[in-house]
Amino acid sequence: MDEKEILKEINSCIDCNNCLEVCDTFIETGNELQSPKGRLKIGDKAFRNQEISEEERFGLYTCTLCGLCDLVCGQNIDISTIIHQTKIKQAYTSKGLYDIQTKISKGIIEKDNSVNGTPEERLDWLTPELRKTEEFDKKESDTLLFLGCMSSFKVKESAISAYMLLKKADYDFKILKEEPCCGEYLYSTGNFNKAMEYIPKVHKLLKHQGVKRLIVTCAGCLYAFNNVYPKYLDDWNIEVKHIIQVIKELIDEGSLRIAKKHSDQAVLYHDSCRMGRKLRELEIFDQPRSLLIKSGVRIKELNKNCIESPCCGAGSGLRGVDKELCIDIGSKILQEMDDEILVSSCPLCVFNFRYINYKNQGDKKIKYITDFLLDAIEKS
């Protein structure tokens, strides 16, 4: 959308307030500036080249871009896209990116990761024994297991479990010694210029490595490679799948088998925004549930799930801008748990739920899906 179209879309809002009923940031704060409707009004000012206030800036950058508002808009306004475009419009003004967002962006560009990790420690999830036998970049394979920043540095069991499941199937793939960030954080926070500098560099690296297929563990990476890269790179032709899609295919074709190892376990499954609602052509809802059921678990669903699943609270950089709001949003999901294990297919969601559980002094168990399933899946 160009700016004229954006203003037309904004002005088609009829104040029906449907979006207020689903927006987690508004529900938690009661502040209309932190609602989809309020953010459209902020966008109207921004695209008319009027200066927004500090309060409006905060309202804009506390949006997780979860997309729930898009589902309920009676006028079919693409609200989350307009909010994102407003972030881009504001990014380099005095009411733009917050210092923490600029710092994280700098880390991506200088260290190739979004968590300020030491690049030399990116592969610490790999055991010394496996590192001795791993060929890394030298391996002649056109399929890359792209682990992402969260799996590599913060939720390392998601990296090793995904890696080991593919190894169990004798799957042909490689990993990189110096994997970059996907750049989704740059894009979603509105740091568009830096994103457009960084993304082509990642693509160039993948082409140099002869990559034709990407397998990712992270919902953010899945979104970036399936939605952002094709939009801005004319020659993007790499197939992208989430690890859970690949494992489901390997079980269906008989390369792997799954046993009922978790018959006495109840699981609360959380659908990540960027694996369903934000990627409507994929909507990875059935595959994880199918595998969990085959492992013997009883699945308890959240009050809202699949396409209506709530955000974990960390999306689009909210965690850095307002940590307390992030905790409040995620806490509502944890409050739906009894003695179940919460399982997610997104390492950022896993990391965030664990952080919230720690801050709340809770005793909840939160697991990444391949780590949960690892002991139940074997080579056929």
Describe this structure in words.
- The chain has 380 residues and is an alpha/beta fold.
- The chain folds into 3 domains: 3-90, Alpha-helical ferredoxin (Fumarate Reductase Iron-sulfur Protein, Chain B, domain 2), CATH 1.10.1060.10; 99-249, 3-Layer(aba) Sandwich (Rossmann fold); 255-379.
- The chain contains 19 helices and 9 strands.
- It has helices at residues 3-11, 24-29, 36-47, 54-61, 68-72, 79-90, 99-111, 128-133, 148-154, 156-168, 184-188, 192-208, 219-232, 243-253, 286-294, 318-321, 323-334, 347-359, 369-373; strands at residues 143-146, 213-216, 239-242, 256-258, 266-270, 298-301, 341-344, 365-368, 377-379.
- The strands form 3 sheets. It has a 4-stranded parallel β-sheet with strand order 6-5-7-8, sandwiched between helices.
- Strand 5, helix 15 (286-294) and strand 6 form a beta-alpha-beta unit.
- Helix 1 crosses helix 3 (36-47), helix 3 (36-47) crosses helix 6 (79-90) and helix 9 (148-154) packs across helix 10.
- The longest helix has 17 residues, at 192-208.
